[in-house]
Design brief:
Blueprint (H helix, E strand, L loop, with lengths): L7 H15 L14 H4 L8 H8 L5 H4 L1 H8 L6 E5 L5 H10 L4 E6 L2 H13 L5 E5 L12 E7 L8 H11 E12 L8 H6 L4 H10 L2 E7 L7 E8 L1
Parallel strand pairs: 1-2, 1-4, 2-3, 4-5
Antiparallel strand pairs: 5-7, 6-7
């Protein structure tokens, strides 16, 4: 005998769904990748790097204000080989360069020729000999297999247009038991400010799931005292 569905059931389902959305309880099962539009401005041939220095390297930006605490949390030490993926204006590239010393190496990876030229100019002016600027692609770091010990991705993971391909490339470039560090923005509906909700494609749990599915083991989330909108999570290559 065919069971009848109460007329009010569809309406109740819609009501409960609306309540869940209002409380930020929806789950993204297939989050979108970043749009190429998000990165287009960094590819401009007339990129005004000075403008981005004034945007990225200011005390109002958490990853700048807390940079020394973040640096310590990475565990990077003298002799480490580090890739600063999404190096931008070179803030962390410079910090890593000083930390790894003459026995280590830093690869400043970015898809923006303008940012890489800026980093090369800095290295030449300061006679820095342990930094290589690397032109990456949206699907690859273009680094050699096993060439790094630490991959550092700061406020850049949400810019990945092809996360699965980029994670495969990062995994390949890491040595055995290498470390992947991701610093990015919290995305919590009802709590996160509107600009970030529109800018960042998914939340921390979605990103963590993507990374673990790509062959990484979650190690820990490090609490950075200067972070309110950002988080710091660490993985090991499986």
């Amino acid at each position: 005998m065919k069971q009848r569905v109460p007329r009010q059931l569809p309406a109740l389902i819609l009501i409960f769904a609306a309540i869940a959305c209002a409380h930020g309880e929806t789950t993204e099962t297939a989050p979108r990748a970043a749009s190429p539009d998000l990165n287009e401005k960094f590819l401009a041939p007339d990129l005004n790097v000075g403008q981005w220095v004034n945007t990225f390297e200011v005390e109002s930006r958490e990853v700048y204000a807390a940079r020394m605490e973040v640096l310590e949390a990475t565990g990077v030490k003298a002799g480490s080989r580090v890739a600063d993926i999404g190096a931008g204006t070179g803030l962390y590239t410079r910090l890593f360069s000083e930390t790894v010393g003459s026995e280590g190496w830093v690869y400043a990876v970015d898809i923006s020729p303008g940012f890489l030229e800026h980093i090369n100019d800095w290295a030449a002016e300061e006679t820095v000999a342990n930094v290589t600027a690397v032109l990456g692609r949206t699907d690859s770091t273009t680094l050699a297999p096993g060439s790094i010990d630490v991959a550092f991705v700061c406020d850049t993971y949400h810019h990945f247009e092809t996360p699965e391909a980029m994670l495969a490339s990062i995994k390949s470039s890491l040595a055995a038991d290498g470390t992947l560090i991701v610093v990015d923005f919290e995305r919590i509906p009802g709590k996160t400010r509107e600009w970030l909700l529109g800018h960042v494609r998914a939340g921390k749990e979605v990103f963590r799931n993507e990374i673990e599915a790509s062959g990484f083991t979650f190690l820990e989330e490090v609490k950075i005292s200067g972070f309110e909108e950002n988080y710091f999570i660490k993985f090991r290559k499986r």
